[in-house]
Amino acid sequence: MMAVPVCRLDDLQVKDARGILVDAPDGAPRALVVVRQQDRVWVYLNRCPHTGVNLEWQPDRFFDLEGRFLQCATHGALFRPEDGYCVRGPCAGDSLESLPVQVENGQVLVSL
Ligand code: FES
Questions:
Q1: Which of 44, 72, 86, 95 to mutate to test the pocket of ligand 1 (most atoms within 8 A of CB)?
Q2: 81 CA from centroid of ligand 1 (Å)
Q3: CATH fit for domain 3-111, picks 2.30.30.20, 2.102.10.10, 2.60.40.10, 3.30.360.20
Q4: Residue ranges covered by each domain of the chain
Q5: pLDDT one digit per residue (tens) for the chain, 112 residues
Q6: Which of 53, 54, 49, 73 is nearest to 63 (CA)?
Q7: Is the beta carbon of 92 within 6 A of some atom in ligand 1?
Q8: Residue partners of 26: CB distance under 8 A and separation at least 6
Q9: Is 78 touching ligand 1 by the criterion CB < 6 Å?
């Protein structure tokens, strides 16, 4: 595993979710979702556990209309932002794959 820079914490709003493509150490690109709420940051693979598609409705549109859950645009599964657990939808009980994340000097790093 290697820590790969994803974005700066300041690039994210206080409540935000962004789709970011990074190059993993093996050279393959990985589609990630970076989620921030206040000073906490989580990173997930941008892959719905139901069929493996990307989650977003439109670029960087991951939250549901109430802004409470991350939502898969394809069949509407809802995921808790803080742990990726699917609370409702065809993959209820599954989770987004979360990746170890750390923030150093304002830089968000993910281990890949
Ligand atoms: S592909 Fe995400 S809910 Fe079906």
A1: 72
A2: 16
A3: 2.102.10.10
A4: 3-111
A5: 899 999 999 999 999 999 999 999 899 999 999 999 998 999 999 999 999 999 998 999 999 999 999 999 999 999 999 999 999 999 999 999 999 999 999 999 999 9
A6: 73
A7: no
A8: none
A9: no
